[in-house]
Amino acid sequence: MFDYLIVGAGFAGSVLAERLASIANKRVLIVDKRPHIAGNAYDRYDEAGLLVHKYGPHIFHTNSADVFNYLSQFTSWRNYQHRVLASTDGQLFQIPINLNTVNSMYGLQLNSQDLEVFFASKAEPLKNVRTSEDVVVSQVGRELYEKFFRGYTKKQWGMDPSELNSSVAARIPTRLNKDDRYFTDTYQAMPLHGYTNMFENMLNHPNISVLLNTDYKEVINEIQYKFMIFTGPVDEYFDYQYGKLPYRSLEFKFETYDMERFQETGTINYPNDYDFTRITEFKYLTGQKHHKTSVVYEYPKDYGDPYYPVPKPENMELYLRYQALCKEEKNTLFTGRLATYKYYNMDQIVAQSLAAFKRILTLNNTADNTVNGYASI
Predict the structure, then answer these.
(1) Predicted confidence band of residue 366 (pLDDT cuts 50, 70, 90)
(2) Under a CB-based contact definition with an 8 Å cutoff, are residues 242 and 235 in contact?
(3) Residue boundaries of the structural domains of the chain
(4) Separation CA 304–CA 322 (nearest Å)
(5) Where does the UDP-galactopyranose mutase C-terminal domain lie (predicted)?
(6) Fewer CB near the terminus (10 Å): N or C of the chain?
(7) Candidates 3.40.50.1110, 3.40.190.10, 3.40.50.720, 3.40.50.300; correct CATH number of 2-78+191-240+310-364?
């Protein structure tokens, strides 16, 4: 008999498993279709002995001391601040767009105040900012939009930015200073020995059992448990009763080169050339010393593993129908990216899971601990 059956061994499921096992002293079984733990954060050593991220680069950053301190129980850290360049017009420019980007592109010597005026002169005022195109052109104008955003977004989403919700472009900042870091969070670091090692430490508890290479539906009738935590695709849980929720996926092409360094920084975006969106070189992220280097090319596509919920109104309407079904489920908690059809950063999922654990503890201390299914914490 298990107290909890958790479907999915990524951040959402693993954090909840660890808290339930170590703090609440509950017996937990984690089931995952994949042959490994750590979800999309899974990393491994390739044939050359280089540490690579199987599902594309995962760079940890957070403003939450609680999240950082929690994960620090299971890993030491390597300080790392990610920097990105964009290849356009045969040159490399800093991204996010900042003072250096504009000065380099136009041969100017602007200061921060000048740049604010420059953006204002280029911006197209809009009364209603509805789409991703609207967000960018209303801030920096159409020329920079065409050079850095439009092509990249079309490749990434398979749609023109004019068709996409404004939330997509809202994730990409524009800066008035020379700060060329991709993130500005208080805590920016990489697990010193990799994400998989961190997850192994997290799940190394006598109350936790892990079953890999297994679809939970194939074993659910053979397992005794009191409560389910589901972190997989919500439409799959309900056998696609209302149809499939649309996702954008990625194909990863890994290459190892017989050289110390392949490119100038961790990631280079290719907004307008080639079928891939970006190339990431892992040694920048990991700090590994090696005479060879491994990189990954990312090719967006419509099919494959579900990575990015497609932010369109009709998709949200479809998800809300599944959410209504979740609320009818007893003793089942739906949490995480796939179960709530929302894109979260890693630290957001950890924070969500820590909050969910507190909610579960509260419910366990009440006379009636039956839980109606949906829980977006």
Answers:
(1) low
(2) yes
(3) 2-78+191-240+310-364, 84-170
(4) 21
(5) 147-343
(6) N
(7) 3.40.50.720
